[in-house]
Q: What sequence folds into this?
């Protein structure tokens, strides 16, 4: 089993729908991150969490929210999806501030 | 503004044809430069961390080097299985990584 698991792997939805992407990890890491990847723009940080009680906005948090339900679980929500949120979303973990991130396989979201 | 820039955007090599990928950064007080490999449809996979100018790290056909303003990923005698997108990243504000847009490497037999 993967150390960092994302569900769903693929999702097609319509504008205005609420969407949740889930991430769980078995690495025992304290830090978790959500990134989105777009062609030509690279990986951009949406939200990050250093422990269960700590949530921080990244560079592109507008239109997104997160929940850290446990050390091992970090969910990303789109309250009302819009087409420009169509992207590949990655969850990642790290132990402390090492810069060595462990990524999930990604969740491809298409908003029509 | 902290920034990480990679070049070229894409690189096509014949098997065995060595080359280098560039990562230049404008991050004040650099606290590490990181290289990742990303295969199509997969999440990035960590390769190297470099902390100081002059430092080098090697893994199979890859060698990463660091100067005060840029890092290079040298690929010696590449094979088709080295085909991937290579990303570099640097920490911003001590705790968040800024990623470059990557170099897409294709190695042909």
A:
């Amino acid at each position: 089993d993967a150390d960092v698991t994302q569900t769903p792997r693929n999702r097609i939805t319509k504008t205005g729908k609420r969407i949740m992407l889930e991430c769980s990890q078995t690495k025992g890491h304290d830090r978790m991150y959500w990134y989105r990847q777009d062609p030509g723009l690279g990986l951009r940080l949406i939200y990050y969490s250093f422990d269960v009680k700590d949530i921080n906005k990244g560079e592109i948090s507008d239109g997104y929210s997160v929940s850290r339900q446990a050390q091992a679980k970090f969910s990303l929500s789109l309250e009302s999806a819009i087409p420009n949120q169509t992207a590949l979303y990655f969850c990642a973990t790290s132990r402390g501030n090492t810069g060595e991130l462990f990524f999930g396989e990604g969740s491809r979201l298409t908003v029509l | 503004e902290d920034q990480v820039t990679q070049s070229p955007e894409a690189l096509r090599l014949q098997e065995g044809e060595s080359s280098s990928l560039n990562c230049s950064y404008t991050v004040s007080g650099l606290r590490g430069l990181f290289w990742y490999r990303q295969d199509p449809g997969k999440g990035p996979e960590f390769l190297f961390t470099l902390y100081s100018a002059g430092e080098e790290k090697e893994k199979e056909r890859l060698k990463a080097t660091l100067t005060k303003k840029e890092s290079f990923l040298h690929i010696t005698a590449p094979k088709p299985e080295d085909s991937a997108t290579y990303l570099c990243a640097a920490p911003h504000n001590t705790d968040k990584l800024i990623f470059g847009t990557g170099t897409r490497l294709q190695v042909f037999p």
Q: What stands out?
A: The mean pLDDT of chain A is 94. Chain A has no helices and eleven strands. Chain A touches chain B through 23 residues (CB under 8 Å). The longest strand of chain A covers residues 42-51.
